[in-house]
Amino acid sequence: MTFNRRRFLASAAATTAALSAPMVGAQARPRVIVIGGGAGGATAARYIAKDSDGAIDVTLIEPTRQYYTCFFSNLYLGGFWDYEALGHSYGTLASEYGINVLHDWAVGVDRDTRTVSTAGGHTLPYDRLIVAPGIDFVAGSVPGWDVSHQDAMPHAYKAGSQTQLLKHQVETMRQGGTYAMVAPPNPYRCPPGPYERVSMIAHVLSRINPTAKILILDPKANFSKQTLFEDGWLRHYPGMIERIGPDFGGANVEVRPDSMEVVVDGSAETVDVCNVIPAQKAGRIAELAGVTDGNWAPVTPGDMRSRVDPNIFVLGDASAQGAMPKSGFSANSQAKVAANAVRGDLTGSRVFPARYSNTCWSLIAPDDGVKVGASYQPGADQIESVSSFISDVGESADLRRRTYEESIGWYEGITADIFG
Amino acid sequence: MRGREFLLSTVLTGALSAPVLSQTAETLGDPEAGLALFRRDCAFCHQIGPEARNAVGPQLNRIFDRGAGAIEGFRYSRGMQRMGIDGLAWTYETLDAYLANPRALVSGTRMSYRGMPDAQDRHDLIAFLRRHSDQPQDIPESAPTALAAQPDLPPAPLGVEGDADYGEYLSSECVTCHQQSGADQGIPSIVGWHPEDFVVAMRAYKQGLRPHPVMQMMAGRLDDDQIAALAAYFATLTPTD
Ligand SMILES: Cc1cc2nc3c(=O)[nH]c(=O)nc-3n(C[C@H](O)[C@H](O)[C@H](O)COP(=O)(O)OP(=O)(O)OC[C@H]3O[C@@H](n4cnc5c(N)ncnc54)[C@H](O)[C@@H]3O)c2cc1C
Predict the structure, then answer these.
(1) Are B119 and B180 within one domain?
(2) B147 lies in some domain
């Protein structure tokens, strides 16, 4: 008790003080709880457990037994990746790294007593808490749609059965039918994701349903890798894809799930498949923990520590950190920086300066891959971009194929890095 | 001239860190001396001149500004094909780096030539190769030589002692793409390399000699100590796949 009190004061005052005040005379191992076993949370749990060699007790709370990656779920829609290959279990994290994996929902965080409560009735104490719950949808952002309509109009923006459902709907769509996508406003997870999805669906339709149409209703004037996508769509799927931007009503869209209609600027149109990707916010538990400000949880750029509570770190999509896109790559990169800081807090290990980076690959058509990436550093208030690159229009077919092959290498690399 | 060049080249990889920008290969090197070197070190595998054909190695006419691995019908190594696709073109600087240490510029190259450590020898040889690139009397259709200006870095000695602990932390940024197990499923393995090869390869990205944009970005913000730390750390790993 005295110990906990002392630590709380130390870390609340100045988090760096914890560096010089490791677990002297502690009875028990310091405890870290990680909420959310996705790209951010699972990476953080693994690095803390691995690098502390058992000196820190790590519990990972995650409701699902099998995590299906959103990354590459578009390739599954396009028929380039197996559903099973998207799934990853937590077995190695438990057996190799000694992480307590608890399949349960976190339903509350008491920051004063430093405990997490779960739907299964557990109350678990922590010295440091990592919150990495990914995203939830903003209610009412697409009038006419809420989560109860996700069978009629899937989002498929959290992978798993939703992705399977969307694939089924696309593949069984009537000849000459219309697939509509309601694209999300910024910021959202995976900026090129919706447009890679359109590419993959166009690829499928061009083979099995060549007279079908794709309609993108987009509240944004511009989108990620736009030139690359538009160039690719023209080359591979001429005439199939129409995008309605905000100038023509793309920001004023309502849906009617019962009649399968989309209403753009007041005029209704019946569609055959409707993929609604709503506006997004931090996973709800971040809000319940009281670490959000608006839709996202602000963090300090040097270590991903919550600006509200120095005992809490927020990773990945849920965080508001500055210039990094919400991606699996970013979440994984942030997790390693946070893991290093958490170990420094709790065991006094060396804390190295933060380094962040991100690369997002997208597949436009078979063997036609493109990428965009940047490296980042902590600025005064936010994470800032240092340098960046993007594929060019007009690259050779060989380079595009190699870029695609590279993305497969990356998928294998990052999933090994997340799940061990 | 020789004396000055010699100083620069005493460190094998000095060539990578000190490309000479203000002078052309021609003013720097002696093509006649280069011809002798070509006969001694290259002619066993390469042909050059009007009648040249592919042999053990590809013919070397118009090598300047040819893309790496660009001769139709020649069976290049995977490493050379990869570099060609990434955009490696033969310029003064890239040839200099390749001839100094072929494997350091192009991992897994099939050219089993251990390298030409002397910078002046390389300059002479490149001056000779250039004759067969831009001199109309030799090769009528050839394009003029362009000597691309490469970002110059101050020469730094190799063999900085790497801090493997720091390297392990830094490596966490790499293993998102390069698997710790050494598996290569589209991105090459970097575990178990000799630290010196590793350093040279990273510097080649940093200087833009190796063309890949992701790696140019990654290497671009690593300083010599950090590269040495990474080299030391990755050298301690052994492939498990
Ligand atoms: C179609 C699509 C394509 C994409 N493509 C790419 C790509 O190519 N490259 C890339 O880098 N990124 C890509 N992304 C983005 C990437 O999937 C996300 O950015 C990444 O998963 C974010 O990681 P995270 O850890 O923040 O959240 P997630 O990976 O979503 O993990 C959050 C986890 O928290 C759990 N959780 C939530 N609430 C609770 C709670 N209360 N208690 C316990 N557990 C909880 C969830 O079950 C989930 O497993 C793509 C996304 C989509 C949708």
Answers:
(1) no
(2) no
**Residue A61: in which H helix or E strand, if any?**
strand A57-61
Q: Within A172-308, where are the H helices?
A: 193-208, 226-236, 284-288
Interface predicted TM-score (ipTM): 0.87
**Count of the separate structural domains present in chain B:** 2
Model confidence, pTM: 0.84
Q: What atom in ligand 1 is closest to the CA of residue A197?
A: 1
Domains and CATH numbers, chain A: 31-137+280-351 (3.50.50.60), 147-276 (3.50.50.60)
Q: Is it the case that residue A8 has pLDDT exceeding 60?
A: no
Q: Are A299 and A307 in contact (CB under 8 A)?
A: yes
- Give the domain extent around B184: 5-12+152-236
Residues B121 and B221 in one domain: no
**Of A143, A159, A151, A155, which is closest to residue A277 (Cα–Cα)?**
A155
What is the atom index within ligand 1 of the atom nearest the CA of A335?
25
Q: Classify burial at B193, counting beta carbons within 10 Å of its beta carbon; exposed 0-12, middle 13-18, buried 19 or more.
A: middle
**Residue position matching structure tokens 């000779």:** B128
B183: chain A residues, CB-CB within 8 Å: 412, 416
Q: How far apart are CA A177 and CA A197, in angstroms?
A: 17
pLDDT digit string (tens) for A220-253?
A: 999 999 999 999 999 999 999 999 999 999 999 9
Give the three-class secondary structure for A74. Answer: helix
B85 touches A at CB < 8 Å: yes
